[in-house]
């Protein structure tokens, strides 16, 4: 008796729908590197906005002091959060490296 492997595979694994294929492709696009790049760009954007607000204030342009301070604090908090996340990731990596197999 001959059994066709293709028949067995198709019976065991149902075909993916178009929606499932799109979901899989989106997951591939949304990998960790993309997430990390997006997060770093947001941190940079907060820093740039803070610098621009400070320069506007120093040049005497129409910007309030509290707006400058708020943008500076937002930039500081985002940077501090990023550093804490980095520290936790490094700590987790070091912990994994200490594990015995």
From TrEMBL:
In the UniProt record, does the keyword Chloroplast occur? no
Predominant location category: other
Q: Where in the cell is it found?
A: Bacterial flagellum basal body
* One Pfam family cited in the UniProt record for this chain: FliE
Q: Does the keyword Nucleotide-binding apply?
A: no
List, alphabetically, the InterPro entries matched.
FliE
Keywords of this protein's UniProt record, alphabetized?
Bacterial flagellum, Cell projection, Cilium, Flagellum
Instruction: Spell out the family assignment given in the record's similarity comment.
Output: Belongs to the FliE family.
HAMAP family tied to this protein: FliE
Q: What protein am I looking at?
A: Flagellar hook-basal body complex protein FliE
Organism, as annotated:
Lederbergia ruris
Please state the gene responsible for encoding this protein. fliE
